[in-house]
Amino acid sequence: MPKDQTPRNLFPGALEMMILRTLKRQPMHGYALAQHIKAASQELLQVEEGSLYPALQRMLKDGWVSAEWGVSVTNRRVRVYTLTPDGARHLETEVSRFEQMLEGVRLVLSPVKP
Questions:
Q1: Domains with residue ranges and CATH for the chain
Q2: Number of neighbouring beta carbons within 10 Å of residue 62
Q3: How many whole angstroms separate alpha carbon 83 and alpha carbon 113?
Q4: What is the pLDDT of residues 15-28, one digit of tens each?
Q5: Which of 5, 9, 57, 60 suits 19 as a labelling partner, its CA being 20 to 30 A distant?
């Protein structure tokens, strides 16, 4: 994040949507998820461990992701997360709701036409 910008909190559900969308591409471990989100956002977003791992635990509990132990490319034992069918359905629903909300915001912020 550029030094002249104050970090902003994500809106509720944003982190979960980004995690689920990332896992839709392929299973990943936590650190790889955080790095992917950072890179995909052109470093505008940085997911801290204190937010990421509690979110993953909630998603495990809700059945949106599953996890199993694996080995990273650096030969470390890691927990690899996979999107479940319930998680894929939840992602579709949340993205649709987000797009509707974003359209509403866009309409309110657009210049008023005489």
A1: 14-97 (1.10.10.10)
A2: 13
A3: 44
A4: 999 999 999 999 99
A5: 5
pLDDT of residue 32 exceeding 70: yes
- Tell me which residue has tokens 């949106």: 64
Residue 50, CA atoms < 13 Å, CB-side half-sphere: 0
Q: Do the Cβ atoms of 66 and 84 come closer than 8 Å? A: yes
